[in-house]
Amino acid sequence: MQTTYIETQQISFQDFKNQILEDYRLGRISREMSYLGRREVLTGKAKFGIFGDGKELPQLAMAKVFRNGDFRSGYYRDQTFALAVDALTVESFFAQLYADTSVEREPASAGRQMNGHFATRSLNEDGSWKDLTAQKNISSDISPTAGQMPRLLGLAQASKIYKSVKFDGSEKFSNEGNEIAFGTIGDASTAEGHFWETLNAACALQVPMIVSIWDDGYGISVPTKNQRAKADIAEMLSGFQRKEGENQGCEIIQVKAWDYPALLDAYARAEQFARVESVPVVVHVIEVTQPQGHSTSGSHERYKNEERLSWESQFDGLVKFREWVLNYSIEIEGKEEIIASVEELDAIDDEAKKIVKAGQKNAWENYQKTITDLIQSVLPLVENLKGQNTEIENYIAQFNKLVSKAKKDIFHLTRKALLATRGTSSTERTQLMQKYSEVFEVEKDNYSSHLYSQSQWKAENVKEIKPVYSDSSEDVDGRVVVRNNFDKIFEKYPETLVFGEDAGNIGDVNQGLEGMQEKYGEVRVADTGIREATILGQGIGMAMRGLRPIAEIQYLDYILYCLQGMSDDLATVQYRTKGGQKAPVIIRTRGHRLEGVWHSGSPMAGILNLSKGILVLVPRNLTKAAGFYNTMLQSDDPAVIVECLNGYRLKEKQPDNLGDFTVPVGKIEVTKEGKDVTLVTYGSTWRIVMDAADELEKLGISAEVIDVQSLIPFDLTNEIAESVKRTNRLVVIDEDVEGGTSAFILQQILEKQKAFRYLDSDPLTIAANDHRPAYASDGDYFSKPSSDDMVEKIYAMFNETNPQKYPAIF
């Protein structure tokens, strides 16, 4: 059991004094970073700045109760906290401001995120987990306001789960579940639904979570009174306050941002509630100042009156902290003791400026050296081409006139030189081409790597194990296959858990988890409230802490509630940390063709386009779905698996090797061979396509049917192009809207796989109507492609080619 701040505060006056002065020093360093950071932006050396000035004291207090193994999920103003827990240095702060792409110099994001977005590295270079209990952890920040909140819930709930769940290696993720998840949010962002959904769920689940609300009275320029029903968020949250004897609700603590002793007391009490009692806590930090306004994009003098600006100057946290230090005295053994004199604090102020300036100087020089080295390696090779085209000398002159040079300028010069010398052959041009290829690969890694896992555990590396059948293999409902496969999964992987609406007690609405809660308990198979955004957030946070969560979203239509978190958070985790963090959560959902506007939508194009970074798997039946679960639990990629909603009661032969067989990602399956046309589809539509193919056979058209199975990644071995090469015709059949997923599939086949070379007819897409599907079987028939639609449209292709052999139907 870890000790708390309250339990460790029996210290000598000298230690007390040293702690105070160290806090003052860190506060001053952080403030000088904000001041100098703004100047660096306004003088053109950086593109944008957003800083944490004004929030130094509460963050110093929060850092005192933040222990090894704890996690933070915050937003872009927590630089003082990051400094205090050794997750940030002055140099790395400025390296991020300049967008330095070095992981060593800017470990949070390798220059991929704007300044103020902090992260610690959870992974070793090979993608394996570090010992997270031996370090203080910051889950990678995102900019969307309140977007960090759902993930916070999962980070906190993981501690509660680790109190009862153990597996080989779990000691690297938790010390008996004694960790706290700390969240930070700006006051105005509490108007977002994600804040309320997260706090509501935390109060119901009773997880060890501390949420700090930095309340400076504004949301950029909009006053708090215009943000919510009550200006005072603590008052508004009063109904959440837990009652004695009840295992619901949270503790609410309000404290002033400039009152150092009160802040220490507030966070000490918050830690006690969260770490010892596993109670969520809201710390509402009021009277926060923002000395430099919201960001470098504007000035707060435009919307704050003189009275407010004067108050902020007087109640600046560091000003009040300095006053408190100078006014502090205590008599010990007859002698008056003070913390520091004016001269001592002035010396700390001067030292802080020097430390920050030195750190900024080093960061700038390191960043500039990267560019200088690139120039020195490329420019001489460009100059060698001057004699081959007169324009090149002009390009070089224009380049040399640039006051500030960036990588893009060097690449622009190189590409212009290669364009100008196209069609020529020389040693000099070959040397420039080779150098260009070399440096381009480096920058490709700097700016485009790690969208998906690059480790040995990436999904593409999971070997295919085919289902095994025998004479004793039974024909069962599809839901039985997936249910019995889950049974094997929970037995095989103790770190795996599933949660969602109706997932526990009744075994999900389609009985795919029937009996699993009774067998494996309420921790591993759990019901949730109706709150899709935080179901996803639970999954992200748990996965960041080494668990293998399956977050169930009851219907595909409802995944729209999750798209913000999928797109802005989950899909970008590996990318925005350049492989420093991962969250291999599996999103389980069900959808496609059934009945009604809200239960048979197919928003696949939205998922595909908004969630690059997440695998999108679309099995045609429940056996294939089970195989994908088995695959993904061996992988460290996140994925969404869409089960066929109309397949749970259809009979399938149950494999004998449940829990072991796998379906490879990025691998298509030819389910019917043919020689005249290639039909490409996925999911529930596959069954209808197979029916249509049988009808086409009767009309003299031999159709090859391909089940895509995996939209992301898509047909990694270009097998569809090989099919088109044989048939010379292509039809993509989809239940998404026109120009949706069918357009994506067509682009992959025609452009990436170059299958256009083999076509004798225009490619055809058959998609659903643009409206949502109407209710009942007739609604499905008239809203989405029917077998009749497919047969008629594919037949028309052949009628156009040979009207005598295939006379018109209409």
UniProtKB/TrEMBL annotation:
The keyword Transmembrane helix is annotated on this UniProt entry: no
Q: Does the keyword Oxidoreductase apply?
A: yes
Q: Which cofactor does it need?
A: thiamine diphosphate
Q: Which organism is it from?
A: Chryseobacterium vrystaatense
Q: Where is the Transketolase-like pyrimidine-binding domain?
A: 476-650
InterPro entries referenced in this protein's UniProt entry, alphabetically: DH_E1 (IPR001017), THDP-binding (IPR029061), Transketo_C/PFOR_II (IPR009014), Transketolase-like_Pyr-bd (IPR005475), Transketolase_C (IPR033248)
Protein name in the entry: Transketolase
Role played? E1 component of the 2-oxoglutarate dehydrogenase (OGDH) complex which catalyzes the decarboxylation of 2-oxoglutarate, the first step in the conversion of 2-oxoglutarate to succinyl-CoA and CO(2).
User: What Pfam families has UniProt attached to this entry?
Assistant: E1_dh, Transket_pyr, Transketolase_C
Q: Which domain of life is it from?
A: Bacteria
User: Keywords in UniProt for this one?
Assistant: Oxidoreductase, Thiamine pyrophosphate
Against PANTHER family, the record matches this protein to:
PYRUVATE DEHYDROGENASE E1 COMPONENT BETA SUBUNIT, PYRUVATE DEHYDROGENASE E1 COMPONENT SUBUNIT BETA
